[in-house]
Design goal:
Distance between the termini: 51 Å
Shape: elongated
Mean pLDDT: 89
Strand content: over 45%
Radius of gyration: 19 Å
Oligomer: single chain
Structural class: mainly beta
Number of helices: 1
């Protein structure tokens, strides 16, 4: 007849790594009895514009060879402890992708666009973190805030240029059920 409760923690900081979505589909569809509970029941990737004080290593001249054109291939995403004073949110948080883990349905890749308004200073990137709805009463969120501690780090994706205060930014994102990619236009 199935089990009453399934509890799982198979998430990395990005939420989608470690095949988390595929891992939840099977037990929800095949092992859970009708009316049973999966914990966490829902997972969300959240984002906000952010200012992060970082130094990006670049490629310039290496032993006489100009490698500056390869700099565009340097990965623009870093993982930052959520309590780092070097990371400051500059917009209201927004849900980027939401996953109903309780449903047991097949997950699909998604693409979204959303507009954020930069407030409280300049922004040079997008911070992302996870929110887990454990049940009807409890939610866990590792929102990046100065002094906060969490098991999972927050992601930071650099924007191609700094955004001025009081400016709207159109962000695009896609996930392929394993990775999240964020960009701005």
């Amino acid at each position: 007849g199935g089990v009453d409760v399934i509890v799982a923690e198979v998430f990395g900081s990005s939420l989608l790594s470690e095949s988390a979505l595929r891992t939840f589909r099977h037990p929800a569809a095949n092992l859970l009895r009708a009316g049973g509970q999966i914990i966490p029941a829902k997972a969300v990737i959240r984002v906000a514009l952010a200012q992060y004080d970082f130094e990006q290593a670049g490629l310039d001249n290496v032993q006489g060879f100009d490698l500056s054109r390869f700099g565009r291939h340097i990965k623009p995403t870093w993982w930052v402890p959520v309590g780092s004073p070097r990371l400051q949110l500059r917009s209201e948080p927004a849900d980027l992708f939401s996953f109903d883990l309780q449903a047991g349905s097949e997950f699909q890749s998604e693409r979204v666009e959303l507009t954020h308004s930069c407030r409280g200073g300049t922004a040079n990137g997008v911070a992302r973190w996870i929110q887990l709805t454990l049940d009807d009463q409890e939610t866990y969120e590792n929102v990046p805030e100065h002094g906060r501690k969490a098991h999972w780090d927050a992601g930071f994706t650099a924007l191609p240029h700094e955004v001025a205060d009081q400016t709207d930014v159109l962000l695009g994102a896609v996930h392929n059920m394993e990775h999240v990619y964020i960009w701005s236009s």
